Amino acid sequence: MEAIFSVFAFDVLIPWLLAMVLGIFVGGIPGLTATMAVALVVPLTFHMEAVSGLAMILGVSFTAIFAGDIPATFLRIPGTPASGAAILDGYEMNKRGDGPTAIALDLSCSSIGGIIGILILILVSPMLAQFALQFSHFEYFWLGTLGLSMAAIITKGSRSAGLIATVFGVLLSTVGTDITTGYPRFAFGNSDLMGGIGFIPVMIGLFGVSEVFRIVTSPGGLSAPSIKEGIRVSFRSVGRILLRNKRLIAQSSVLGTVSGALPGAGADIAAWISYGVAKRTSKNPEKFGTGYEEGVIAPTSANNASLGGTWVPALVFGIPGDTITAIVLGAMMMYGLTPGPLVFENERFLINQIFTIGMVSQFFLLVIGALAIRVYTRVFRFPKNIVLAGILIFSIIGSYALRNSLFDVGLVLIFGVIGYAMEKADMPLPPVILGLILGPMIEENLRVGLIKTDGSLLPFLTRPVSAALVVILAALFLGDPLRKLITSWWKSRRANSN
User: Which of 181, 415, 417, 473 is the most buried (most CB within 10 A)?
Assistant: First the structure.
């Protein structure tokens, strides 16, 4: 109890809340990621007590992940990579006037998912960490392939168009220095391309700048507000939606936590996988991508829950679950703490404080997030010519801030044109981002795995976890055809017997 009450001390609470407000601001600006928000906060914690510094880091990460859904829903511009899946149904809801309801669902599910993720962290962190240790290059290859297969599920319309978009994203991921030989590929002597094509400038260009082009070229598009006037959120109706989808919230939160516990997976992969699984298990899969409430709930429940999962390998083994916990591990060592199995015995008081901060942050998120929604909805009620001009400026600033590179600004503009052309040709955009994010993970683990086995593919198929992932992949692609085949055979057999 002492650990619980200690986090409400004045010198902990004030910086904690200020960091959460900063997370709302950073997460809501395209190009400024949750990782960047944490990196901005860490230097401020150098002369603080460990609990105050960790409260700031945890608080800013939770609010930044949620805030990325705000521009994704209202403007179809993901604020953070973890919000990429939020555009699929959230923006469609906004187009028909239900944007505030979509954001209210985002906020509620982010908080609930975060609570479930922290509870799982508290109850089963050693067991989840042991499961995460079962993953080697072979399992990570199949995990990446499983994530990539979601492109076939999330694609609306032609699957061949989705496949082409996915392959395009994977090809983009091969640009840069070869991960195993160190030899530059497709760089054409350009030093900027040797570092690869970052997915954040591509994401801003494909979704943000292309949307600006689309609105500018549509008649009367600039004069319309981004959000329809007079729209109000009924929290009673949001509560009914949450109750109606309680199984989906639990499913997505658990998936998000498990994904977060796998080093390198992170919130963005967790969101895409949860969206794909939700669509496969839904009674109305055809409604996904049309502004369906389940398509809003699944990814936002998963991405905040994954933050709890990332702390599992970080605390138990000192292995960062994502870039945020990599920064956190550095901060913990700065405080003189050594993550590992003994941290639960040697630093039990601090561990209880971390658990308390993670849990209470979800309730603070509800309050701060609700205030942020009110502010953003007022801002987005301005005519689109004003809003889009501001978003375009912030997009350019955000893309430049990543590497202080004008080259990235050029990428944003180039992929804005590419995204506009793809939409005119009815080509889906999300699979491009999915391929760009997962391409390096798949390639690296495939090539390193083959080097370890002298070119043998057997370990990719015979290891227990790998075999289980292969079965899941086969079920995803062969489940529907097999079910139709069995149903047809059964009906014909009954007809013949009659």
Answer: 415
